[in-house]
Amino acid sequence: MLRLRNRDQFQAGMAGATIARTPHFALHRRALPLPVEFVADGEAPAAVLFRPTGVWLGAMVPKRWARRAVTRNAIRRQIYTVGLCLEGQPPAAYVVRLRTAFDRRQFVSATSEALRRAVRAELEQLFARARRTAA
């Protein structure tokens, strides 16, 4: 599994279709290799953005929805861990995006076990939906 690293890669992944949603997450997928016409003037060529083999995964956890850095990093780690289930899929760029905040009244601690379990369960549900969509 390869990780998305720069803005152009994330934008290319986000340009793909949303293939699964849960209450807090959305999963975007863009098949590889990217067509040359996707690359606008002044952008890097698609060959530079991705190697056309393998599965690429990126995690977008905006400060708007997870205020504490500890929480953002914990969610990101969960995304990359659960995202290992994408191995063996056809070459594509996937972006998991946090789209709403977890209730701070319910999850008081930034790294509570309850929050960790809730995030993991929702991510497993997200990737299960994505696998069903791909099949």
Keywords:
globular, alpha/beta, 135 residues
Give a description of the structure.
- By secondary structure, the protein is of the alpha/beta class.
- The chain has helices spanning 7-14, 46-49, 69-82, 113-134; strands at residues 2-3, 17-21, 25-31, 55-60, 92-98.
- The protein starts with a strand and ends with a helix.
- Helices cover 36% and strands 20% of the residues.
- The protein has four helices and five strands, in the order βαββαβαβα.
- Strands 1-4-5-3-2 form a five-stranded mixed β-sheet, sandwiched between helices.
- It is globular.
- The model is unreliable at 34-38 (pLDDT under 50).
Cα-to-Cα separation, first versus last residue = 20 Å
Biggest β-sheet: strands ordered side by side in the sheet: 1-4-5-3-2
> pLDDT below 50 for ≥5 consecutive residues: which ranges?
34-38
The secondary structure category is: alpha/beta
Rg is: 15 Å
**Overall geometry:** globular
Kindly state the percentage of residues in helix: 25-40%
Q: How are helices and strands ordered from N to C?
A: EHEEHEHEH
